[in-house]
Amino acid sequence: MPYERSTGFGHALATQGAPTRSPEARLEEATALARSIGLSIAWRTMFPLRSRRPATLLGEGQVEQAKHELALRGIGLAVVDAPLSPVQQRTLEKVWGCKVIDRTGLILEIFGARARTREGSLQVELAHLDYQRTRLVRSWTHLERQRGGFGFLGGPGESQLEIDRRLIAERMAKIRRELDQVRRTRGLHRSARRRVPYPIVALVGYTNAGKSTLFNALTGAAVLAKDQLFATLDPTMRGLELPSGRRVILSDTVGFISDLPHQLVEAFRATLEEVAEADVILHVRDMAHPDTEAQAADVRAVLNEMVRSGTLDVDWPARVIEVLNKADLLAEEERVAITEREKGSVLVSALEGVGLDRLNRAIDQRLSGGLVVRHFALAPSDGGSLAWLYAHGEVLERRDSPDAIRLAVRLRSEDFARFERRRATAVHN
Asked: Any idea which of 14-18, 61-65, 91-95, 346-350 has the lowest mean pLDDT?
């Protein structure tokens, strides 16, 4: 939906918001969200909320103050950085005389503008429809309007609002079926990767933490990397060779954000599945941001929610390497203090390429934990065992001769035990 370029910004502060996130930082983030889709900010302010008014969210005096400022500047779009009910949105538009969108609507607009793949576009459309179906009354205030129809268009007596709701429900059902097919295809791709097998290393982090810049620096790729919220929406993968010679697949994912619309939490489940499948999770943090701790807490909260939904294993923290990015924006004493405080983390500057060697070694070390190297001599006819070792381990060396296939394989201790039991069972049979 096209917007007026002149935009007013109101940030409603709830008293029960995250205690570690400053109101000023929330306002800056909301402003950055608006600017990321080309909106110019003509006026912005913060309104503390003592209570949420059912009709307007804001207090009467706050609504009147905003009305005056919006009219004074000729603003055509007001963004309220809080969830608005359809009634609140409709009332504010009537009082202020301009279009009003809330945080959810703004984020959906950004996602709609950025999605590039078929999967991403379907996910965004599904989220948009889920959001809009509760707001159809805004377009049809004359509910007495009736129309007849034929077949699926509805019979006599069906209102236009009912038709629109039914069409939206049908479209959402169709998109879900298409997304299920996309997920099955992604599942096949993951199965193929497991047969190679290459470990998966997934980048996660708050939006604009520098994930795509780090992805490009590690892989030499050319993924869009901007100082912009949600510059990356669609998952991107590239191969990466570690110092040990081991090859991994590096996956860049969508950025996390506080108060992510619930429609998008579900719609982007397929994107987050890459995190669930990852052998190593790189949590990329913007250490130059004043709210870096609150941002990290938001990311962990989403990952814990994935655990509760059964998408992610409860042991995910054991797979995480904390990557403390944007060291180039920190003073020397800050870098020293962070290194002392954040034991086990890796301080890097993805932009300047500083610390990437240490990060690669840390990934190597994490992947090698619990791995053993074993040597095997297989009969040339034992194709089943050969295939099993390739599927479950990393073949470091192979020498073929007429009497045997000799392999050096790195695999998990439990997989080695499984292989020995498998061979023992084959002998007894």
From this structure: 14-18
Task: Identify which has the larger pLDDT, 153 or 158.
Answer: 158
**Domain 198-368 in this protein, CATH class:** alpha beta
Average pLDDT over residues 65-88: 94
Instruction: Report yes or no: 243 and 358 within 8 Å, Cβ to Cβ.
Output: no
Q: How many CB atoms lie within 10 A of CB 108?
A: 23
Which tokens in the block code for residue 141? 């205030």
What is the per-residue pLDDT for 196?
56
pLDDT of residue 1: 30
User: What angle (nearest 5°) sits at the alpha carbon of residue 275, between those of residues 273 and 281?
Assistant: 175
Average pLDDT, the chain: 81
User: Which DSSP symbol is given to 353?
Assistant: T
Determine the topology of domain 6-110 in CATH.
Rossmann fold (3.40.50)
Instruction: For the domain covering 372-428, report its CATH number.
Output: 3.30.70
DSSP string, 229-293: TTS--S-EEEEEE-TTS-EEEEEE-PPB-TT--HHHHHHTHHHHHHHHH-SEEEEEEETTSTTHH
Name 281's bridge partners.
Answer: 202, 320
Q: What angle do CA 225, 222, 231 make, to 5 degrees?
A: 25
Sequence-ordered list of residues with C-beta below 8 angstroms from that of 314, at least 6 positions apart, any chain = 307
The pLDDT confidence band at residue 321, using thresholds 50, 70 and 90, is very high
DSSP codes joined into one string, 371-409 = EEEEEEEE-TT-HHHHHHHHHHSEEEEEEE-SS-EEEEE
Closest CA to 322 of 192, 188, 214, 168: 214
CA 172 to chain centre: 21
Same topology, domains 6-110 and 372-428? Answer is: no
Residue ranges per structural domain of the chain? 6-110, 115-143+153-196, 198-368, 372-428
Residues 132/138/141/144 CA torsion (nearest 10 deg): 0
CB of 248 within 8 A of CB of 286? Answer: no
